[in-house]
Every structure is written in C-alpha cells, then in structure tokens.
Amino acid sequence: MMFKRFLAGAAVAAALAVPSMASASVTITSITADPGFRTGRVSYAPGGIGGNPANTVQNLNIGRFRLAGVDNDTMQAVVFETYCIDIFNTIKTGTFEIETFTLADALKQQQVQKLLGHTAGFIDAAATLAAKKDTSAAIQMAVWEIINEAGTSGYSLGTGQFQIDGSYGTVNPAARGMAQGYLDAMGGWAQPSGFGYRMMTAINPQNNQRQIFLAAGVPEPSTWALLIAGFGMVGGAMRSRRRLTLASA
pLDDT digit string (tens) for 117-152? Predict the structure, then answer.
C-alpha cells in the first residue's frame, strides 16, 4: 500500500454510505486514515509489492482507510471504511465498480468473510485511540496474511511467503500479536450471518487498489448500508497474475 510511499490498510467497518442498488460505480475523491495507521515492514517472497516485480520488501502504513466520494448513479455523497486486499498497486482516487466479493480460492474467501464479520465492531469497541489503531492494523494484517499466504491454514505473520516484520515501526508488538491471535482463533469461529460481501474494483485509473466491503445485511433494491472492508494498502486492481491466483484481489 502506498499512500505516497506506501499503501496502508483500508477497512472493515461501519458504512457510512447509502448508494443505490442500481449504481454500478462510485468515484472516490478523498482518501484518509481512520482511525490512523501503524507502520510495519511487509515482505512477499514472490515480489511485486507496490507494482515493482523485484520488490519483495516494503515499509507500509497499516490500517483502515476512509474513502469518500460520489455515487455515479444518484450523485449522492458516499463514505466507505475499507481494508485492502492488494499489495501490488498504490491507493489513488478514481472510479471504482462495485461487484460481488469472490476469490478463486473458496476457502480463503470464506476465511476473509469470517474475519471481517467477527471483527466488524472491534475498532469502535476499543477504549483509546491507540487501541483503535492497533485493532485496525491487526485486522488489516490478518486479511493480508489470508490473501497472500500460499496455504489455507497454519497462518503466521512470521513465516511463509507473506510476512510482517516485528522489528520495524509501530506495529509491534500489540497490533501484530492481535492479528496473529485472530488468525489462530479463526478456525473456531462460526461463519457470521447478517452480512453481505462486496468489493470495489478500480475502473479509472486501472492500476489502483481493489477493496472489499462488508455490507450490513443483504442490500435492498434501494439502499446499501455499507461496512467496507477494503483490502487496503496498495490500491488498485490486482495484477493479472495475482487475479489468476486469487481471482480478485
């Protein structure tokens, strides 16, 4: 994720948007941190972080994004709180299509849905701003681990092809430990009910971040109450190679 030099996480959370069901796209004009980022060193062994094929390590901001803009059908203002699923592009403003959240790996898709459904209220419940930042970063790190790790079990932020170094920045130890706790406990969590899952795919510019969002309930024909879980750090549509691997992000 690169917000200038990095692309930080983006967001699960309560949606602040009410786009029409008929709307196919939104134009995002503002990107901010909510509640604020932690920093960490992300490594991905196959490379490609930030759009550079040789880039296997990058310092990133990690946490939830708040994306604000306009519903292109109704021209009403919309706000999304998102987490990123794309470490291969940078986050930018632009036009995004809203579509069903799917991954090529059905188990990973279920795991992301389970994670987001169970942690949707955790940031709001945190007692201090520091705790909110830690929780936000932890959710983002857990999402990245699921999306980018080779297997579908035994997730670890310290081993495998995707890792987050505990020796850099402000992400260690609280947020990193919290993220690992989510990953370790996830197998015992029930699949959450009451949520729909969608994602935002960049249309213009195309090399922009892809995000998913957690929709509260099944959207009615006229409204969406959005809790966006964008996969937030490096924005944009995933490279075609990565799309083949995960079928989305």
Answer: 999 999 999 999 999 999 999 999 999 999 999 999
The pLDDT confidence band at residue 6, using thresholds 50, 70 and 90, is: very low
- For residue 141, which phi and psi values (nearest 5 degrees)? -60, -40
Q: Which residues contact 61 (CB under 8 A, 6 or more apart)?
A: 1, 3, 6, 7, 8, 9, 33, 37, 38, 39, 233
| β-pair partners for 6 | 3
Task: Choose among 168, 182, 162: nearest CA to 38.
Answer: 168
Report phi then psi at 138, rounded to 5: -65, -45
Alpha helix (H) residue ranges in 42-120: 106-119
**Secondary structure of residue 38 in the 3-state scheme:** strand
**What would the pLDDT profile of 157-209 be if each residue is shown by its tens digit?**
999 999 998 677 777 688 999 999 999 999 999 988 888 888 989 998 878 88
Q: Which of 16, 152, 150, 7 is nearest to 85 (CA)?
A: 7
| Spatial contact of 105 and 35, defined as CB atoms under 8 Å apart | no
Q: How far is Cα 249 from Cα 236, in angstroms, rounded to an integer?
A: 9
pTM of this prediction? 0.79
In eight-state DSSP terms, residue 220 is P
How many residues make up the chain in this entry?
Answer: 249
Over its C-alpha atoms, the chain yields an Rg (Å, rounded) of 16
Q: What are phi and psi of 246, to 5 degrees?
A: -115, -5
Distance of CA 58 to the CA centre of its chain: 17
Q: Which amino acid is at 47?
A: G
Do strands 94-100 and 25-33 pair parallel, antiparallel, or not at all (unpaired)? antiparallel
Contacts of 123 (CB under 8 A, 6+ apart): 12, 13, 35, 64, 132, 135, 136, 139
